[in-house]
Automatic annotation (TrEMBL):
Keyword Amino-acid biosynthesis: yes
Any one GO BP annotation for this protein: methionine biosynthetic process
Annotated InterPro entries: CBS_dom (IPR000644), CBS_dom_sf (IPR046342), Diverse_CBS-Domain (IPR051257)
Name of the molecule in the record: CBS domain-containing protein
UniProt entry keywords in alphabetical sequence: Amino-acid biosynthesis, CBS domain, Methionine biosynthesis
Keyword Amino-acid biosynthesis: yes
Protein species of origin: Methanothrix soehngenii
Ranges for domain CBS: 7-65, 68-127, 134-190, 207-259
SMART domains registered for this protein in UniProt: CBS
Amino acid sequence: MLVEDIFSRDPLYVEDSTYLTKARQLIRDNHVRGLPVVDSRVQVLGVITSQDVLRITSTKSNVTVSGFKVQVPAVTGDTDVLDAARIMLKEKSNLLPVVESQEDKTLRGVVTIIDIFKHLDISKVPKKPIGEIMSTKVVTARLDEPVTKVWDRMVERDFTGLPMVRDEKPMGIITRFDILKRGWARISKESETRPVERMQLPAEKLMSSPLYSLGPTASVAEAIELMLKHDVGRVSVVDEGRIMGIVDRSDLIKCYLGE
C-alpha cells in the first residue's frame, strides 16, 4: 500500500508568518495533531504540532509559527506506507507532509500515524501479548491535581495523554486535546495574573472516561481492534485493578514492523 492510497488531501496548513495563537486555534477547533507549515508559495517548511502550541501561555501573542516549526522529512504519494511509518517512528512525529516530489516541495496533503494505524493488516500482526511490548514506566495524574501541573508534565515530558488514578486505581484519562479543546492551553503561566480558582481547577474536570484497558496476556491484535473500535490512541494494561503499563499506536506499529 502506498501513501497515495491513504493520505488526506487539501489539508489545513499555516504559513510561517501565521501567529502561533492562530495555529493553536486551528489545531484545537479541528481536532488535529499538527499542521504543515509552508511559505508563500505553499512549499513545505516543516510542521507545527499540538505539543508546540501547548507551550503558548497567553491569550495574545505576536509570536509566529516560524520559530516553533519542526523540520520533518516529507514523503510523496509513491512512498510505501510502512516506510512512512518507519520515518514517523524515527522522527517521533505523528504526521508527515506529502509533497509533489522530493524536488518539488509543494504541499499535496498529510499522512498521519492514525491513517497508518487504520490500515494495518490484522492478519499480519505478530502473535504477541501486549505485556511484552507495553511501556512500563507509566506516569499518571491524580484526580485532584491542578490542571496546570498536569499540563506542565505533558509539555515537559512530551506526553499526549496521562491515565488518571485514585488510590492507584485507574479512573479515566486526560489528553493533550482535552486541554486544548477546552481552551486551557490559554492559561497564563504568570501566576500573579492567573486567577487562583482557575489555577486550582482539578484535572478531574477535564478527564475523559472510560479508560480503555486490557490484561497483559491480551494479544497485540486485540489491542489494535479495541483502539480502532473506540477511536482511542492508547490502552492501559491493567492487572488486578492496577495499571501495569501503557500501549499506544506507536508501540503497536513498532511491533507490526518487527522493531
